[in-house]
Amino acid sequence: xxxGTARLGPRTKALINRLQAGDIAVIDHPDLDEVxxxxxxxxxxxxxxxxxxxxxxxxxxxxPSLLAAAGIPLLDAPKELGARLRDGDTIALNEEGCVxxxxxxxxxxxxxxxxxxxxxxxxxxINLPAEVERFIDNTLEYARREKAFVIEPLPLPPLRxxxxxxxxxxxxxxxxxxxxxxxxxxYIHEVKPVLIGVDGGADALREAGxxxxxxxxxxxxxxxxxxLAAKDVIVHAYRDGRAPGLTRVKALGRDAHVLxxxxxxxxLALLVAYEGxxxxxxxxxxxxxxxxxxxxxxxxxxxxxxxxLKVGARLVDARGVSQLYRGRPRxxxxxxxxxxxxxxxxxxxxLGPSLRxxxxxxxxxxxxxxxx
Length: 372
Known about the structure:
It is built from 15 helices and 15 strands. It is of the alpha/beta class and 372 residues long. The chain has 3 domains: 2-119, Aconitase, domain 4, CATH 3.20.19; 153-323, Rossmann fold (3-Layer(aba) Sandwich), CATH 3.40.50.1380; 333-370, no CATH class. The protein has an 8-stranded mixed β-sheet with strand order 7-6-5-1-2-3-4-8. Helix 5 (114-151) crosses helix 13 and helix 11 packs parallel to helix 13 (302-311). It is globular, with a radius of gyration of 23 Å.
């Protein structure tokens, strides 16, 4: 029997902030995605009840497998169960999937064991080609509609933070974002890029010890602390100008700019960095693959396709940078590198500033690799 306090929320990423270790999360999240599952794992919940199918069969989503690997039980239950539970109820789940409150059964569901997850994912892989075809058709259709938005310059509001001529680091809570952000710590310390957090990406920066300079998004998953810590806040609005997130920002007593744009908030963040004159844009945790967008519930990626075409010359996608090399340098490597650096450094000093900049870049890359 699994016992714990039920925590309910219509949006998983908002519920995460209220979870405590040992809680039983009650979510309504069809095709549970990897980022949401990882956040549940980080919250150390005792179990997860999903009021929607955790694997619908549209595509092989990664969330259920992640929970299974972490040893967190996952129960798919009908939506009616949510109406019978209140936030804060003490509930119990038995091996058959029955849910009890105060000893009285209030509903039942199906446990997703590792074997069940594998079977359903295999069926989803068979369906994937048809889903890919629909995704491509939608992407091309919406790209034709939205191309004018990307072609025209984005009218930027006056920002306290200057982007011109600087590097910009755009952080999104996507796949492996924590490890990738940690791998870039030396780069952040050395180059001091403008730190742009996309919604919850602002909190990812704060968790890593870096206060965000700019927060961009619809404000549905960023903490009050991150909003108050940022120098600038840009609320992503619908194309008709409606900006539901602005109400929350104003309630905190701080000012904000509103930008209306199609597509995702991370697309808008890349455009803000580009139009602001950033010399280089480094992206962490951004979504760019088919599975990424299907996990976000999107039927196409038109705006992302167009935005990346526009900013591509300045964009460095740091996704997976933490996995490039996992070995540890041997003890004599730092000494060899230091000695080897003396010759080009001396030449650089003798021949001029351009070579000095090159040596500085090589040295920075070595420090990132060594973790200094």
